[in-house]
Structure formats: C-alpha cells, structure tokens
Amino acid sequence: MGSVILWIPFIITSGIENCSRQPPWFNGLELLEDAKQNKHVLPSGCEGIDILLEGGFRIGQLTEIVGPSSSGKTQMCLRSALGVADMNLGSVFFLDTCNSFSSNRIASMINQHTATSVEEDGETRVKRIMSRILCQSVYDIFELLDILRQLENRLSYQEKSNGNSIRLLIIDSIATLVAPILGSKNSQGRMLTISTGILLKRIANDYNLSVLVTNQMVGGQRGHLKPALGESWKSIPHVQLLLSRDKGSTICGISILKHTTIGSGRTGKFVIHN
Amino acid sequence: MSASIAMAESSRSGAHALLDGAQTAWDMLSEEQMQKPITTGCEELDTILGGGIQCKAVTEIGGIPGIGKTQLGIQLAVNVQIPVQYGGLGGKAVYIDTEGSFMVERAHQIIEGCIADLFEKFEHRKQSLVCPYILQPNSFLANIFYFRVCSYTEQIAAVNYLEKFLEEHKDIIVVDSITFHFRRDFDDLAMRTRVLGGMSSKLMRFTKKHNLAVVLLNQVTTKFVDGSFQLTLALGDSWSHACTNRIILYWNGNERHAYIDKSPSLRSASAPFQVTSKGIRNVTSNCKRVRMM
C-alpha cells in the first residue's frame, strides 16, 4: 500500500513532462512565427482574382468555389494549378471526380500566356509545368478519405521545404462524391462530409498547403440557388467564393460569400480566354 | 525506423512517387492526344466538338422531342464501328433503351448510308482495302448490344451489370434516355438525387477505367425563371453537374442546330446539322460557316 502511494507523484510528474514534450497548444507569438514562415499566399493565376482576394489563396485554408453549372469553376481550378506549377511554388494534386480534368486545356492555356523567360522554349515549358500537376480520379467518398489518409502519411515523412512538395490540393468537385450519401434520414452522410472537411483542413494546416474545393448549387426556397451539401458544410471552408456567368459570355463574376479577413460582398470579374 | 527512411527516400524522388494511381498531366496529355474521337457524321458538328465525341468523357445531349436525339444516338452507335482502316475506332456499342425508340429498320438504313459514304470516300483506295465483307450491315448490327429497360430499378440494375459486361472491349454506351423513368414514380426527390448521383458516378468510373465514351440523351422540361417559362434539361440542377460535356440540340428557323453548353476544353459554339435517310449529315443547301458564340 505504501509503495503505491509513492508511485503516484511519479505518475503525475511523468504525465506533466509528457505534456511539455508535445505541447497541444501554441501561444500567439508561435502562431505568428508559423504564419510568417509557412502560411504564404498562393496566386490564383488571374490578376483580378488576386486583387479581390488580396493575394490569392492562403496556405493553410480551405477555399470553396461555388457556382451553377458551367460557370467557370473547373477553369478557375485549372488556372490556379497552372499558376502554382509555373512559378515553381510546388506541385499540384488534382482530384477529379467528374472527368473534367483536361490536359489539352492546360496545354492550350500555357501556350496562350507568354513565356516568363526567353531561354525556355514552348515545349520544355509545357513539360516542366505539366510534370508538376498530378491528377487522380476519385468516384467515391470512401476512396477520397483513403487517398487523403495516404497523402497525410506520405507528407509526414517528406521534408518540409522540398521544392517538389505539394502546395495546392484541388478537389473538383466534392459535391458529386457526397450526393449519393447525403439527404437520407440517417446522419451518416453528414458525418462523412464533415469528417472529410475536417481532414482537409488539418492537412492544409499541418503540411502547409492550400486546399481548393468546388461545389455545386441546388435549388433552394423560391427558386433561388444555394450551395449544395447543406447547412452543416457551410461552416467548414474558410473562404467561400461564388461564381456566375451569363450564358454565352466569357466574363465570369466572382463574389466573396465568406472570408477570414475580407468583408463578404466584394465582387470582381475575370475572363475565360479560349 | 528503416521503413520510414525507405518511405522518405521514395518520396524524395519526386512528387509522382507519392500515390499510386496518380498521373502527371504531361503523361495524360500524350494519352489524350492519341485518343481518337467518334465522328458524328456531320463534319461541322465534328469540328466544334474537336473531332467528334470524346472517349473518356460523359457527354449529355438534350433537346426537345423530335429534334433528333435518338437519331444521333443510333448514328454514334454505328459510327463507333467504322474500321480502323477507314479512320474509325473499330469498336462495339452498347445501347440502353428506356423509351423504346430504337428501331432496327432505321438502324439498318443508317448503317447502309454509312457504308455507302465510306466506299465513296475511299473509292480511290479500293484495291488496298481489307476484307470488304466486314462492311455488311449485319455485322454492324451484331456489334450493337441492346438493353431494354422498363423501370428505374431495371435501369440501375443495367448500369450495375455493365461493369461485368464491359470486360470485353466496348467503346461507347448510349443511354436513351436517361431521365425517362426518373421523371415519374418518384415521390422522394432526395432519394432520386442520391440514386442519380450514384449512377452518374458509376458511369464516370466506367469511362475512365474502360476508356470508352458515354452518351446520355436527356429530355427537356419547363422551368419558371425570372417570370417566364424557359426550357431546361430535365432532372434539375443536381443532374446538370453529372456530365463532362453537354450539347443542346435546338431548332433555328427550319434548321437543326447543336450548341455546346458545357465543356472543360471546348469553346461554346453551335453548328447546324441535318437528319437525312442516311443518318446525321452536314447541311447541304448552302454553305453555312460555324458560328462562334
């Protein structure tokens, strides 16, 4: 009995030591240091959008692009992928759920923009940029969760400041994965959606990459369209952008629905070139 | 410890060592450029589509009744079988019929028209042509695999069964029309969205895995927007995201036109076409240039 009482302070002090070895919380100064060193801003590839978002997509944040069908969401994703790969900021991982990834389109976008350096000719530039964009097709929410867990495992072994490390993760579009499971009486669909959202945010924060997700719109009350995936998903993304495009025009309007530092309601425009 | 070192080394060798199944865009580019599209029979339509209906993509074709959707569906099921020597894919077609609008006599007529046109085009090369007996209407008909579905459960079952059926080589699946059984008999709209979402995911998976084209024919409905009734494709906004490309067929005066409504890689354009006894062909009355929107 006496020896057990002697063990108790030992257990408590070793527990406190454990806590100090892996602190579960940071103070404000450490967070600021981390933000300055790691959480930069990735350009979106289009100046108008960069001006609207005061730089672009922030690393460590989950950005959601919402819009009706054919409003330019995939084009915006392809353009950001191109921008990040071109400026050697890192690799891009594109998870494609609706077969909308078109490497021909990326190649034609590269050829339209003038080369940044004179020494590099068109062919090597295309190859350099496109070798940094990885694409994988996903058709199931469970496949997506599996891929994200594998990604997390691999990233935890990778060096932090490797030039080849993934900086931008794009999922186009998450609504097609969630649509078959959401809406029934049980809440398993919502549970899976929110778990995916939380996993994406954790990956973005811990491994210093930016996550871009596209979402669809569904009919709401009185015929207005609202973002799909429901009320519970609404609080998950850090930034929500709404795209719109008139039929037949190449100009898309973009407006901020939700942002961490910029007021919502600001709008901008960008053009989709052919 | 050694396992983590090994993993770190493999991941240092490049980002593409990261995950199995991921491809770089550069590899996909060379694959995409070697992909042969399926011609529609009308050259102007082929031009705006970038050569024809693309494989590895789900294309939705919608229009009002009588515009020629079924004709286009049958034409594509025939054109996919054009032998490689004549510039086609030499493939087979799966035709899932939900409305009962597939007429074998009309398919026979379209096949004869297609063969006649092929012989006309390749007349100068007649000596070097291989096996002209392959180009018999019966052999074309034998390569169209026809499923008739009469309810939505049969439709879902047909799509599930296709997985096994596609293990032998097929190149196009035409579903005519995908929306017919889902527009009635469904009280629970949320379940309809879920079921359709699951079906479209499966079809997308087929196109990628088996390298084929999926063509879905859709009907139109009216929607009350901004105080007026407008024609939109059936099944609502959630279904509008289930395809890769969308083509809308419409009447422009006395002519049939096709308009590209949604595509990740093609620009919006419209082209006229004609439905003749031989199938879908160019408009021949006067030379109309393709109008770019």
Description of the molecule:
The complex is a heterodimer of chains A (274) and B (293). Chain A has 274 residues and is an alpha/beta fold. Chain A has 10 helices and 12 strands. The mean pLDDT of chain A is 82. With 293 residues, chain B is α/β, with parallel strands linked by helices. Chain B has helices spanning 2-12, 25-33, 43-48, 69-79, 104-121, 137-142, 152-165, 189-210, 236-239, and strands at 23-24, 58-63, 93-97, 144-148, 172-176, 213-218, 220-225, 228-233, 245-252, 255-262, 269-276, 279-281, 291-292. In chain B, strands 2, 3, 4, 5, 6, 9, 10, 11, 12 and 13 form a 10-stranded mixed β-sheet that branches. In chain B, strands 7-8 form a two-stranded antiparallel ribbon. In chain B, helix 4 (69-79) packs across helix 5 and helix 7 runs parallel beside helix 8. The longest helix of chain B is centred in the last third of the chain and has 22 residues, at 189-210. The interface between A and B is large, with 63 and 56 residues.
Radius of gyration over C-alpha positions of chain A, nearest whole angstrom = 22 Å
> Beta-sheet strand percentage of chain A?
15-25%
How far apart lie the N and C ends of chain A? 82 Å
| Backbone structural class of chain B | alpha/beta
| Global mean pLDDT of chain A | 82
Q: Catalogue the unreliable spans of chain B.
A: 1-16, 287-291
Please count the helical segments of chain B. Answer: 9
| Sheet with most strands of chain B | 10 strands, mixed
Q: Which SSEs are present, and which pair or pack?
A:
The complex is a heterodimer of chains A (274) and B (293).
Chain A: H1 2-21, H2 28-37, E1 41-42, H3 47-52, E2 57-58, E3 62-66, H4 73-86, E4 91-96, H5 103-112, H6 122-131, E5 133-137, H7 141-157, E6 166-172, H8 174-178, H9 188-206, E7 210-215, E8 217-219, E9 225-227, H10 230-234, E10 239-245, E11 251-258, E12 267-271
Parallel strand pairs in A: 3-7, 3-10, 4-5, 4-6, 6-7
Antiparallel strand pairs in A: 1-2, 8-9, 10-11, 11-12
Chain B: H1 2-12, E1 23-24, H2 25-33, H3 43-48, E2 58-63, H4 69-79, E3 93-97, H5 104-121, H6 137-142, E4 144-148, H7 152-165, E5 172-176, H8 189-210, E6 213-218, E7 220-225, E8 228-233, H9 236-239, E9 245-252, E10 255-262, E11 269-276, E12 279-281, E13 291-292
Parallel strand pairs in B: 2-6, 2-9, 3-4, 3-5, 5-6
Antiparallel strand pairs in B: 7-8, 9-10, 10-11, 11-12, 11-13
Helix pairs in contact in B: 4-5, 7-8
